[in-house]
Amino acid sequence: MFPEGALTFEYLDWLYRKSPDGLNISSDYTEAGKLLGHYTMVPQRWIIGGESKLMALSLNTAVHEEARGKGLFVRLAEETYSIAARHGIRGIVGVANANSTPGFVKRLGFTLVSPLPVVAGVALPVPLHAASNHTVNAAFLNSKQFTLLTARLHFNRPGGAAQEWSIDKLRWRLSSPKCQYALHAHKSGVLVTTTATGPLGARVVIALKFFPSNEVDQVDTAALIRQAAAYHKAWFFIYSGFNNSASLKGIPLPRRLLPSPLNLIYRKLDSTLPDAISIQFSSFEFLDFDAY
Fold first, then answer.
1. Burial grade of 278 (CB within 10 A; 0-12, 13-18, 19 or more)
2. Mean pLDDT, the chain, as a whole number?
3. CATH 3.10.180.10 for domain 9-115+256-288
4. Strand 236-243 to strand 203-212: parallel, antiparallel, or no bridges (unpaired)?
5. In the chain, which end has fewer C-beta atoms inside a 10 angstrom radius, N or C?
6. 37-94, pLDDT tens digit by residue?
7. Eight-state DSSP code of residue 153
8. pLDDT tens for residues 253-284?
9. SS3 241
10. 206 contacts 286 by C-beta, under 8 angstroms
């Protein structure tokens, strides 16, 4: 049902079983012992209205071609949402591409919050003396250095709705077997990156998330992008999402040029959450979902 090699056992075990926010919540459909449908979400703690709320990120959804036309997509989704509500999940966020967004909105009661903006730009790959780069691996994540670097971060700024982060949660997120990450530190905050190959084989920095330090209101995004470019030996960067503590200048990419434009979607499961019209998201970037 999924592309060959896209979801390895190691990756799914990490994603479904090892998150500090809880185990995955899933519904499956089988016939004659054969899995023909699957819908899953993973719990995520969020700060909404100044309070910690247990949410869920809608993730892997698939129906085998043999079982299509039976309404399984809606059935499995609603079963999963019912299970989630019984486990204390208050609402669901998701990232849908242009093709799947109408199905989530019209058939599952989601609201399209906004398209995720994408900006690109040229970076000067010259390192700064007042910044540092760190290759992310198991040794680094379990080191005193990682703890000290992240202890000075202001993970959860008041105002708006954003995923609730902690040192342990960031350590888990960066242990994903799906990607090779790097962490770039500056007095104003931290940037997590990976890379991709662009046109003509050019290496491109993918800026995954900015975390501000306790000492500033705004991350110096230009300094951190420059540091990342020097580390990766890249002249270009791409960033998608938004962050009230990090304003990154770049060229907005028109959605018609994107291979798969992404949309942030939202559905509340109980009355303790604001509705889609009044909720104000303050931060949502690549690292907040499963793109990398």
1. exposed
2. 92
3. no
4. parallel
5. N
6. 889 999 999 999 899 999 999 998 877 676 676 778 899 999 999 999 999 999 999 9
7. B
8. 988 878 778 999 999 999 999 999 899 999 99
9. strand
10. yes
**Domain limits, the chain:** 9-115+256-288, 119-254
Asked if 240 and 269 touch (Cβ cutoff 8 Å), the reply is: no
Residue with tokens 């242990």: 175
Domain 119-254 maps to which CATH number in 2.60.120, 3.30.70, 3.40.630, 3.40.50?
3.40.630
Helix ranges (DSSP H) in 191-275: 221-232
CB atoms within 10 A of CB 149: 19
* Listed residue (81, 100, 78, 99) closest to 89, CA to CA: 81
pTM: 0.93
Q: Which residues fall within 8 angstroms of residue 70, CB to CB, at 6 or more apart?
A: none
Which residue in this structure is represented by tokens 């992310």? 136
The alpha carbon of residue 197 and the mean position of all alpha carbons in its chain are separated, in whole angstroms, by 20
